[in-house]
Predict the structure.
Amino acid sequence: NNTPHASTGFCPFFLLFGREPRLPVDDWLARPTPAAATSSMDWVRHHHQQLKQAHDKAYKHLENAAAA
């Protein structure tokens, strides 16, 4: 669920949770963790906006894939 789908352009995990998955290999490679939000409401607003944009883009990609 972490591989981008050809028709949506996003991985299913991102469309469901609004963030990239954190995998065990990320700890091995010492990849940084996402920065914490200043407040819960800021996080909720940002998360909602990010999910809305991703869903809108995925819908447009699906429309283009269906037309092709």
User: Anything to note?
Assistant: Residues 38 and 51 are 19 Å apart (CA to CA). The mean pLDDT is 84. The helical segments are 12-17, 24-28, 40-67.
